[in-house]
Amino acid sequence: YNYVCEVCYNGRSASEKIAVNLYDFILIDLGLPDYEGLDLLKEAKTSNSEAACIILTARAEVKDRITGLDLGADDYLPKPFSLLELQSRMQAITRRKFGLKQNTVTLGDFLINLTERTIIHNGTAVNTITKKEFDLIAYMILHKNRTLTRTQLSEHIWGSVVNDDYDSNYIDAHIKNIRKKLNAYAPPNWLETMRGLGYKIIVNS
User: Fold this and answer.
1) DSSP, residue by residue, 102-140
2) In 49, 50, 77, 201, which residue has its Cα 20 to 30 A from 143's Cα atom?
3) By the 8 A CB rule, do 111 and 188 touch?
4) Secondary structure (H, E, C), 165-200
5) DSSP character for 33?
């Protein structure tokens, strides 16, 4: 998966951001110099209740780890750790949290592989989809059967909202291009426009 990241270098800054922004995944270091990490976790689970969360800790005490899990963290990772292990744990939690049992999703005649970032139609690779277009598809799959606003899609792709009208038009253009490219193989009827709201991808169980 591709992640658009926002980094905070202290607990106060993180507290301010999670109070006003919605995130899909939150990593919290329990050893913050200016803030109690478990308090920040409580705040995160209050304002971002649907977000996945991993706590990072150098603390040897099992009690802190258990407390973190009891407060709603999905996993913990002791420091030092491998970035590959962090990535694997994030992917596993993402699949579980958002209801993806595997890395591949079948949409009509299309097979989407979220790890390999490929789209296959009846054995033929679709090579015309750009990185940003795939990012949009993958993000909507993670939030399957849920309407995502243009602002939410824009924040995921670019990390912030620059201009509502500009972002909306840009998202609409990307969706139009995705449909046009996939239509060369088969109509992507699973990609729905929710008029006045946004877009969603329908994934049948």
Assistant:
1) SSEEEETTEEEETTTTEEEETTEE-----HHHHHHHHHH
2) 77
3) no
4) HHHHHHHHHHHHHHHHHHHCCCCCCCEEEECCCEEE
5) S
Domains in the chain (CATH in brackets) are 11-97 (3.40.50.2300), 104-201 (1.10.10.10)
Cβ–Cβ < 8 Å for 15, 26? no
Q: Which residues pair with 56 in a beta bridge?
A: 29, 77
For the beta carbon of residue 139, count every other beta carbon within 10 angstroms. 19
Point out the residues of the chain with pLDDT beneath 70.
Answer: 1-2, 59-61, 98-102, 159-167, 205
Helix (H) or strand (E) holding 75: strand 75-78
Q: Establish whether the linkage from the previous residue to 80 is cis, with ω within 30° of 0.
A: yes
Task: Please write the tens of the pLDDT for every residue from 68-113.
Answer: 899 999 999 988 888 889 988 888 887 777 666 567 889 999 999 9
113, 103 Cβ separation under 8 angstroms: yes
Phi, psi at residue 48, to the nearest 5°? -130, 60
Element spanning 39, H or E: helix 37-47
